[in-house]
Task: structure prediction
Amino acid sequence: MQTTFPRLLLQHAAQRPAAAAMREKEYGIWQSHSWQAMAALVEHLACGLHLAGLTRGEHIVVVGANRPRLYATMLAAQSLGAVPIPLYQDAAAAECIFPINNAEVRFAFAEDQEQIDKLLEARVECPQLTSIWYDDPRGLRKYSEPGLESLDALIERGRQFAAAEPAFFRAEIDQAQPDDVAAMFFTSGTTGNAKGVVHTHRSLLDRAHAGAQFDRLTEREEVLAYLPPAWIGQNIFSYAQWLACGYIVNCPESAATVTIDLKEIGPTYYFAPPRIFEGLLTTVMIRMEDASAPKRKLFQACMNLARRVGPALMDGKPVGGFDRLLYAMGNLLVYGPLRNNLGLSRVRVAYTAGEAIGPDLFSFYRSIGINLKQLYGSTETAVFVCLQPDDQARADTVGVPISGVEIRVADNGEILVRSPGLLKEYYKNPQATAEVLTADGWYHTSDAGFLDAQGHLKIIDRVKDVGRIQGGANDGAMFAPKYVENKLKFFPYIKEVVAYGDQREQVCVLINIDFDAVGNWAERRNLPYSGYSDLAQKPEVYQLIGECVEKVNADLAADERLAGSQVSRFLVLHKELDADDGELTRTNKVRRGFIADKYQLLVDALYGGRSEQYVETQVKFEDGRTGSVNATLQIADTRTFPPVRAAA
Result:
């Protein structure tokens, strides 16, 4: 792409000055920002940052929720040839130290007091961080830290400079080239220290345009930006494609109001990781369990019909006239109101990515008329590698390679990708760069998979995680932990799973229950409990989870390749896995190796044949304090099934 992000901003401002570019909700009211207003804000911010000393090629940290001023700060930095680095707003101060020091950051934008406190704490070990600007002044009136200033003050100085030097801003933008570095994203650090992924304007915008062309996106789309801006998935959908297409990005008031804001906006283009779709479905199922018997029967009957004919209707396949009539009635009575209740009634294209989604979960959304599809990509590939065409959305694939993408499968089953959207490098890490990028431009994804006969990519698991059962009746059988985990997580009662089995005789899992779903289930059965730990160890809960595990085992037995991955034993953890405790990444991916070390006692008990195990675990509370939780965990055996042999 022969352009840059700031040039696209000026292009939209010139062509559609009064059109809405972004909306944000504040105090319950949606406020619009036009393209012309955004361009003026970016100009004043850029001039202010120039006066503060931000130079071409330098890095600036931005941390906060999705807000017009956060995106304007990123654009202002890019206008000067500087490089914005979005950080996760829920990261602890200690997690900010490495990116700030690694990128030699002197300047930072922070949304509010929470983020200011975090950066001031980190600054003790980052002395070069001299200037911090805040957007929301609440709680900061009596702060007198050196270099701390409101964004309004920066904007005002920039406004005065722009009035005195009206040609400065455009002259700076004109200096930028498509192959200049546009942004840096730090990986989630699943296996160790985060790495800074360097992307250019060309790589990000090329993939943004490719994705837009694939789904015929226009300036008429509405998007809700509610996921962390530091996650490249959110950044592509609400920043790169926003500027590539010119559609409207809507910023919710807070994380607590997202579901309400989703219904108010009614996005046409929606993106969420599987965890969000799981949560939405769990909410629906909880509400249906509390409904009257006639409503439950109607819902069940309509859903049985939807599962049978809904996906075929979505794919444009022939469906009988009577079934079409029944589905239309179901749409009037159940599916339409359900889509509206979820806030997805206007969705034209919905994507899920980040992790594999359970096939039943995927089919549920498509069966009720939501065009949910899967995509494949990563931070290093600027997200868009494979996408599913509207009429070829399948639960077991992640789509076909889109324009500009080549895919090759290595001898060990690893997926290799060549694309205009590949990272330029890992910042200050040539060794890691050389490990993933070949001399002829192929990127090692570390994912295992293959292209099927229809040209769709199937992902099995991470290459390093695909293992083999060793010993016992299933000796040599394939073990795919993520596949097992995702099948279990479809059940509304199961929130998180960690599976082990490589080089062992059997598969064992650690399970987190979904506290809301299981709590609702317990209350309807008059089962008392005092909190998560107490509920998790109830015999009735173990029976409930055991039934879910056995259903998954029966499904696995039907797949000859994965029949050996059936779960033999499980336990329900006494606490929820948490990113603050190091058990999940900031994108909520399980850190399997870390958990194995932390809960070695429990893993040993599972494989040692024990029926219970006492454990004490240190936890970190939201206010930064540490404490411990302890419990005696029950360990349960589950029924496994012989493999179902394919007919000759």
